[in-house]
């Protein structure tokens, strides 16, 4: 099948390389020095699941690619709306546009531009990043990708199209593919974790070990999660009763110096995904009439820094 990977960073480039190794027709959309390196030297993935190098087309213009079977959107959430407006050259009637991004709003933003019939929601569980232009380093995580139809013929989750993508990803080395019956539940489940991890580590400039070893901070972290679970329930997404405990156990096993991408972006002067994380919790909470004071506090503390680095979409 033919794939466009829109956003060839840690997640997108990893998927693109694995799909190319499985003999799919892969095209990368990137920019800057990373794009230059991809064009000149190809893509190198250094992975705990095995290294690989692929030479695949790379561009900054979707019109160079043409119609695809699937477009995997792997950009930061603040670029989602802009990317959505550029997808038309990649689409025909059955093209699937799959979001593998942080947050619970990206699918809606994509659907506003391309139509719900194209959109699949997705969640990526992988620790990977651009180590240098043209080189992506995968350091851990299961490389598990969970996805499903956002809303197609009134039935989210499974479809023949989603099954085709599942088959393609399942055949890739170093990729665990999971086809979800209810992708909204999967999105909110991960959202519970990333809002706590990103919010606490960034607002406090803290590592996981500092968070875990301080009783008050660990309780704060857990309560951030519980707020997100409550908002999800009010939205009609009933997460399993053990969601918070399961994530606390998971975080208990993370490496001591782990932080978050939001922490990294804050401390390195980069644009931040705050609006798609704790900012989104606040907006959803207001819409459904649920109190979320801890997420509201995190958002208030970090918003001046996010604003300094450029406005994000916040609706």
Annotate the secondary structure layout.
Elements: E1 2-6, H1 10-21, E2 25-29, H2 32-41, E3 43-47, E4 52-54, E5 58-59, E6 70-73, H3 80-84, E7 96-100, H4 106-114, E8 119-132, E9 135-149, H5 160-170, E10 176-179, H6 183-204, H7 208-212, H8 215-234, H9 243-252, H10 261-267, H11 278-288, H12 293-308
Helix pairs in contact: 6-8, 6-10, 6-12, 8-9, 8-11, 11-12
Q: Based on the structure, what is the oligomeric state of the protein chains?
A: single chain
The succession of helices and strands, N to C, reads EHEHEEEEHEHEEHEHHHHHHH
Low-pLDDT stretches: none
The CATH superfamily name of the largest domain is NAD(P)-binding Rossmann-like Domain
Record field, number of beta strands: 10
CATH class of the largest domain: Alpha Beta
Assign the CATH topology of the largest domain.
Rossmann fold
**How helix-rich are the residues, as a percent range?**
40-55%
The overall pLDDT average reads 95
How far the N terminus sits from the C terminus, by CA atoms, comes to: 35 Å
**Domains (count):** 2
Structural class label: alpha/beta
Task: Return Rg in Å.
Answer: 19 Å
Global geometry: globular
- Strand % is 15-25%
Pfam family, one: ApbA_C
GO molecular function, one term: 2-dehydropantoate 2-reductase activity
Function: Catalyzes the NAD(P)H-dependent reduction of ketopantoate into pantoic acid. Catalyzes the NADPH-dependent reduction of ketopantoate into pantoic acid.
Family: Belongs to the ketopantoate reductase family.
